[in-house]
Amino acid sequence: MLWEWLVMPQGLKNAPATFNRAVAHVMRQHRAYASHYFDDVFVHSRAEDGMSAIESHNRHLDAVLQTMGDAQLYVNLENPEKVKAVKESPVPRHVKDLRQFLGLANYLHKYSKNYAEQTKPLSELLKKDTEWTWPKEQEDAFTSVKQSIVETPVLALPDANNPFSVVCDASNFAIGSALMQKDDNGVDRVISYQSRLLKAAELNYPVHDRSYFQF
């Protein structure tokens, strides 16, 4: 009886190289708009041939998914499930629950504007010797974080041939920035969000100086 692997087995010395070559062979006809690294495939598109970027992207996705299906390669919907998990997360009842929620939210924080400022009331509960309470401030922060991740705007693909701009902001306890670039219609699009809480020493800086910490 002959047995054949249906998935790449773990532990074999040549498994990574063999798998990567297999994916490269399957995806070779889509190299112009689909990059890959092992089991991660990144489909990127722009306006072309009289089609908008969205129309072009939909066409590329259809082509890539068709090729993957023909080769019996399947898409993992794990990342959308992560967003669903954040959306359906119950109110934390103790520190362990809160750590689990923030760990999942941190994975998606680059899509969320002012994430550090939103999570500050929650982060306060993680400090040593802090009594566990859940007043309105924490409840509002918890709801705000979930909404910002679930309803977040779609990030744009950067274009190295066009100029970038950085928008910075600072509050009394956090700093944040957004990497921006204009699309083909001249509309500002967000490439990435970044934010963090200020350290103890940084809290003494004037607000206009805090924005420079992001550089």
From TrEMBL:
This is Reverse transcriptase domain-containing protein. Pfam families: RT_RNaseH_2, RVT_1. It comes from the Eukaryota. Residues 134-211 form the Reverse transcriptase/retrotransposon-derived protein RNase H-like domain. It comes from Peronospora farinosa. Residues 4-87 form the Reverse transcriptase domain. InterPro entries: DNA/RNA_pol_sf, Rev_trsase/Diguanyl_cyclase, RT_dom, RT_RNaseH_2, Viral_Replic_Matur_Polypro.
